[in-house]
Design brief:
Layout (H helix, E strand, L loop, with lengths): L10 H22 L14 E9 L9 H18 L3 E2 L4 E3 H5 L10 E6 L2 E6 L4 H11 L5 E4 L5 E2 L24 E3 L6 E7 L3 E8 L5 E14 L5 E13 L5 E14 L11 E2 L3
Parallel strand pairs: 7-13, 11-14
Antiparallel strand pairs: 1-10, 2-9, 3-8, 4-5, 6-8, 9-10, 11-12, 12-13
Length: 277
């Protein structure tokens, strides 16, 4: 019989487990001499390196819409901790070190969370949309991602997808963080805000970028394995161009997707199915 983990004995022990993991990560960061961004300034830096918008409310199959509405409240609270943060050269951005633990006491509501490949309700659910937004912005800059946890499964059909599959990130206080480091010579600033419809984000700096970044998905398809299980497959590349000459400088593979499809197979587009993986 498999021995239970401490976190599996109930809510109280789950909280103890979270606290223990958070302290372990803090100690590890201290030993490594991590220098995290702390200062904020809401006066815009002059140059926008990358900006984008994300739709706040999406109809997801089998998901209570109230959880989506609660997510907006959660994002609003988190945005107040992140908006205006300055990441100086050599400093690192840490999602959880800025936002802190998303608790009911802080005003967070139940939203959609994903745990062990399954969807469920949880306080602070939906904050991954903020991390996803920031990661998408970072991918279009020379900033260096230092911690990223990809969703391992394809949980929803591709309905009105605007970005390549798999370019999101999983977060869970504090074990699964989203982090990036500013290895450039210039400070950068993150601006994030919401209205009734969209989440907005920008990465700004005091100097314009000389390069342009493009994220593309290639060889996208679905295929069954020998057990009849479908997987969503694709390759995601980052292409860097010189802004002045338009010349391609680099094309790098940043993600090789092979994700188990967790939704009804009848929703898979037939034209995207291949015989074998």
């Amino acid at each position: 019989m498999k021995r239970k983990l401490l976190c599996e004995y109930g809510p109280f022990f789950y909280k103890i487990s979270l606290f223990k993991e958070a302290r372990k990560k803090d100690i590890k960061d201290f030993i490594a001499g991590k220098k995290f961004a702390r200062k904020r300034n809401k006066e815009n830096f002059e140059y926008i390196w990358k900006g984008d918008t994300k739709l706040l409310l999406r109809k997801l199959l089998g998901v209570d819409m109230q959880l989506q509405k609660n997510k907006v409240k959660n994002l609003l609270i988190a945005s107040e901790k992140i908006d205006g943060i300055i990441i100086n050269p050599g400093e690192e951005f840490s999602f959880w070190n800025l936002v802190g633990n998303a608790t009911k006491k802080k005003g967070y509501l139940e939203g959609l969370v994903i745990s062990n490949g399954k969807m469920k309700k949880g306080i602070g659910g939906g904050l991954c949309q903020m991390a996803n937004m920031i990661h998408w912005l970072v991918l279009h800059t020379p900033l260096t991602v230092t911690e990223l946890h990809h969703h391992s499964d394809a949980l929803f059909p591709d309905v009105k997808r605007r970005v390549p599959f798999g370019t999101g990130t999983s977060i869970s206080y504090k074990a699964l963080d989203y982090r990036f480091k500013n290895n450039t010579e210039y400070p950068v600033q993150i601006r994030v805000w919401l209205d009734d419809t969209f989440l907005y984000g920008e990465i700004r700096s005091i100097k314009p970028l000389d390069e342009k970044y493009k994220i593309v998905e290639e060889d996208s398809h679905y295929a069954k394995d020998e057990n009849g299980v479908f997987y969503r497959n694709s390759k995601v590349y980052r292409i860097i161009y010189d802004k002045k000459t338009k010349k391609q400088l680099k094309k790098e593979l940043i993600l090789n997707n092979h994700s188990k499809v967790m939704y009804d197979y009848s929703l898979i587009p037939k034209e995207e199915i291949r015989e074998k993986i």
